[in-house]
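ok posting inputs for the N-carbamoyl-L-aspartate job
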Amino acid sequence: MTHPAAAADLIADRLVPFPKPHFLAAADLNPPFVASLLDLADAFVDLNRQSTKALDLLRGRTVLNLFFENSTRTSSSFEIAAKRLGADVVTMPVGASSVKKGETLIDTAVTLNAMRPDILVVRHGASGAAALLSQKVGCAVVNAGDGRHEHPTQALLDLLSLRRAFGDVGGLTVAICGDIAHSRVARSNVALLSMMGARVRLIGPPTLVPGDADRWGCEVFHDMREGLVGCDVVMMLRLQLERMDGALVPSTREYFRFWGLDREKLAWAKAGAKVMHPGPMNRGVEIDSDVADDLSVSLIQDQVEMGVAARMAVLASLSARLEGAA
Ligand code: NCD
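and the output
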């Protein structure tokens, strides 16, 4: 275990300014920067495992968490990340805000912007919402999920979990399975994993795989067995019923039978394959508890831990860019 002061020095050495003014999509990153961001995140993992976790890298900065969609792990991990870096954090429960009184997304953002936050973390049900906001405000914007478009910090924490489990992500075969059509997690992961040299497969029923998915640079399978053979990683996605227009699956029981990950289906992947899920999980729908809770195969708890470290790395790096611009 590293000494707290040594951890702080290591973090200072690894801190690299973010390459863009905002973090809206995986494409805002590039391979050498991703590698250095993950190195920084590794140092935050060490810090987070110590009893004293506080740093002052973001002292004096204000981070606003603006969540227009429900979230447990993403909003709390951004909040913990910002607090551990010493920032002042305000998490806006949108249910209690003027949005409920009819104020538009842009009005809300412009109002909050006038309070001069440094970083605005936003989740919204409309694809493109974070990009739109970034044009209207004077602070750095982090996309914490916009509709079915992107969720880039999720892809980053997934990458961190994979790099720690496998050493290197280049050359891994990763299957992303289930409701691809409604998943921002899938889109960000395809972009980031491909950027870092992994091979990505998409597996799901034709109703839940977008028609243009073959142009994402991935192999597409409509059969779990065919798709899972030879995979190092099986990333399951939640069946996003709230985004579906009409019934795209006959029943959740039937869905589990064909597409739910259990021991039998996992055995089709490579021996030693790891299982991931961004959460929240529908147990017995897309994943069996027996697999999800088996720590010898499941990275699901690691993903949650890595979420805080990866978000600390993003916030610290965006703040370092703001420092440079000041
Ligand atoms: C994901 C999301 O919100 O896009 N969850 C998360 O961020 N932990 C995936 C999902 O909701 O299924």
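notes: The pocket of N-carbamoyl-L-aspartate is lined by residues 73-74, 145, 151, 154, 184-185, 238, 240, 278-279 (CB under 6 Å). The mean pLDDT is 93.
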